[in-house]
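#lab-general

N.A. 3:47 PM
ok so I finally got the sequence cleaned up, no stray characters, all 241 residues accounted for. can someone with queue access submit it? mine expired

B.Y. 3:52 PM
send it over

N.A. 3:53 PM
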Amino acid sequence: MKNIDKLLLSVLVLSILLTFLPKTAYANSAEPPSVVILVNNPPEDLSIELETDKSMINANVRQVAWEGYYSFYTRDIKTSSKFTFKITTKGESFTCTIDKPIQRYKNIYTLDLTSRELTSGTHPLRSVLLVSIRLLLTLVLEGLIFWLFGFRDKRSWFVFLIINLVTQGSLNIWLGIEASLMSSYLIFALIIGEFFVFVAEMIAFPIFIDEFGKTHTVVYAFVGNLISLIAGGYIISLLPV
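B.Y. 4:20 PM
back already:
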C-alpha cells in the first residue's frame, strides 16, 4: 500500500513539473502571417489558389505522411478580412471562403474534398491519433531498451509504464498543442521538453525500481531518453505534428 502511495505521489509531482514546460511565443522573428490548409490524402492533381484583387496566388505545397499542407504567405493575409480559395482537382473547380479576420501568425483550416467544405482548425480526433502513435512508438523503443538493461520484474515494468505514460504522454500532448504546425523550430521544442523528461525520469526510476542498483537504473533512464530524443527528432520529420 505504501509503494502505491509513493507511486501516486510521484505521478502527481511529475505532472506538476511538466506543467512548467515553456510556452510557444509569437514574435516578429516568427514566420510571416499565413493560412495553412490541411488535406488528408490529397490527390496528385489538387491545386489550391488564393484569389486577390490583382492575381491568383498558388499555395506552397508540402506533404507529410497522409497529410498535405497548402500554405499561403502574403501581405494580403495580414490586411484582409475575407479570403477566397479556388480548389481544382479531377478537372473540376470550386471555391471556399474564409470571412473571419486572421488572428494569429499561423491559421489552420481543414479541407474536406468530399463535402467541399473548409473548416477552421483540425479534426477533433487528429491530435488523439498523433499523440497515440508517437506515444506508442516511444513506449516500444524505450521498452526494448528497458528489457536490454535486464529489467524483468513485473513491478519494474508496471512502474516503467506509469512513469512513461505521464512523462512521454505529457510531452507529446504539449508538442501537439503548443508547437506551431510544420514549424522549423519544433525540434527545439522537443529538446526543451525532453530535458524535463530526462530530469523527471532520472529521479523517479531509481526511487521506485529496486530490481538493480540506483546507478544501473539511472544509466538506463539516461540512455533510454537519449535514444528517445534522437528517435523523436526523426519521427517528427515523418509524421504530422
